[in-house]
Design goal:
Layout: H1 7-16, E1 18-23, H2 27-44, H3 64-70, H4 73-83, E2 87-97, E3 105-108, E4 116-117, E5 122-127, E6 138-141, E7 152-153, E8 167-168, E9 177-180, E10 186-191, E11 196-198, E12 207-215, E13 220-221, E14 228-233, E15 242-243, H5 253-278
Parallel strand pairs: 14-15
Antiparallel strand pairs: 1-10, 2-12, 2-14, 3-11, 4-13, 5-10, 5-12, 6-9, 6-11, 7-8
Length: 292
């Protein structure tokens, strides 16, 4: 067992739904991963956020540097103290906001469209840039994960950095909001049900984050699609997911095929879960009012 976190910090995560910040990457590592990101973007022909939506997610399947980052021991040691020694990477996803842009994430929960049960999914949000208050850091509604799954509406937020442009459409307690600025190489952790948001990037630099979604192998996917995952620590004795190997070369033919297949599985599952969780929402619901 890693035992990096004190009992008090584990208790804080259980009570509040998040922990921040943690130091993970050295300045040299940050520079390395930034250079690899830029090299990958040159390969695909532009920003991972803009060229094709498939490049925003699961790049650990086709780029060795993303796989390496997802397995970083200083990240996994902390995750292990929360979910145990056997760890699957369910998804990785970039959240990049270009300088002086209006992209936001409205109040939402990660749990809504993933279709994972029980709610033991945990996200490590890794900063590859300086995520200051002006750059749009994550903001957490403290303790909101205790409410469980809340109702959420998609296709509401036009300038959303989230795929569905979603927002929470029922009451949750906003009396205590914790903001999580991060220095380059730091990361935060949050529970899949904690309500969170992020504002626009009002700086002259790119705001770059990589969200790594980890689950213990005992977690199941409840949809009709059998989902892929990557074993990054320990062992999987449950067999609930199709385990995919680490990439041997960047953008190789096998790696590209696995990434494309995984992207299709993720999107199919995503829209299946979206239809299920939103089927009973009122058709005339004015969710835009909740953005203010």
């Amino acid at each position: 067992m890693a035992h990096v976190l004190s009992r008090e910090r584990v208790a804080s995560y259980r009570a509040n739904g998040f922990l921040t910040p943690f130091d993970a990457l050295t300045p040299d590592e940050v520079a390395h991963y930034r250079a690899e990101l830029e090299r990958s973007e040159r390969h695909v022909g532009g920003s991972l956020m803009a060229v094709d939506r498939k490049y925003r997610g699961n790049m650990h399947l086709c780029c060795r540097w993303v796989d390496q980052l997802a397995r970083h021991p200083r990240i996994l040691d902390v995750v292990e103290d929360i979910i145990g020694p056997d760890i699957l990477l369910f998804t990785s996803r970039f959240f990049i906001k270009e300088p002086m842009t209006d992209g936001i994430a409205a109040w939402h929960q990660d749990s809504t469209y993933f279709g994972l049960r029980p709610f033991e999914h945990i996200t490590a949000w890794v900063a590859l840039s300086d995520v200051t208050l002006e750059a749009g850091p994550l903001e957490f509604a403290v303790g909101s994960h205790y409410r469980g799954q809340l109702q959420q509406k998609s296709n509401v937020v036009g300038n959303s950095v989230n795929t569905a442009g979603q927002i929470i459409v029922e009451w949750f307690d906003r009396s205590e909001i914790a903001v999580s600025p991060l220095a380059p190489g730091q990361f935060s952790l949050h529970h899949t049900c904690v309500v969170h948001q992020s504002g626009p990037n009002r700086t002259n630099a790119r705001r770059i984050g990589l969200a790594l979604s980890f689950v213990p192998p005992r977690v199941r996917h409840i949809g009709n699609h059998r989902m892929p995952a990557t074993l990054v620590r320990g062992q999987d004795t449950h067999g609930h997911f199709d385990l995919l190997p680490a990439p041997e070369r960047d953008f190789g033919p096998d790696e590209t095929r696995r990434h494309d297949t995984a992207f299709k599985s993720y999107i199919d599952s995503f829209y299946e879960q979206l239809a299920i969780v939103e089927k009973d929402l009122p058709a005339n619901l004015d969710a835009t009012a909740l953005m203010h």
